[in-house]
Design goal:
Shape: elongated
Order of helices and strands: HHH
Number of helices: 3
Number of strands: 0
Largest sheet: none
Radius of gyration: 22 Å
Distance between the termini: 33 Å
Length: 82
């Protein structure tokens, strides 16, 4: 699989750049890698929130309550074990 990189001229306030420089040095990464990971984390969080928002409409609240209210402490069934 070929990964293609794109460049993007990023402007940010000096105070934020100083904070990123400090944190990336503490993290042992380059500023670029730190910013890429921060953006990836944000995209992942937004995609996760969107996933749950889309699937919320299909939720069966009665089944959910049944699972929450079931008795615990039971050993795994034969199909639950590896």
């Amino acid at each position: 699989m070929t990964v293609r990189n794109a460049t993007y001229p990023l402007r940010m306030p000096r105070s934020l750049k100083t904070a990123v420089e400090k944190l990336s040095a503490q993290d042992g990464t380059s500023m670029n890698q730190f910013v890429v990971m921060a953006v990836a984390e944000k995209v992942s969080a937004l995609n996760t929130a969107e996933f749950f928002e889309q699937h919320r409409a299909n939720a069966d609240r009665k089944k959910f309550r049944k699972i929450l209210n079931r008795r615990g402490g039971q050993s795994p069934g034969p199909k639950d074990q590896i």
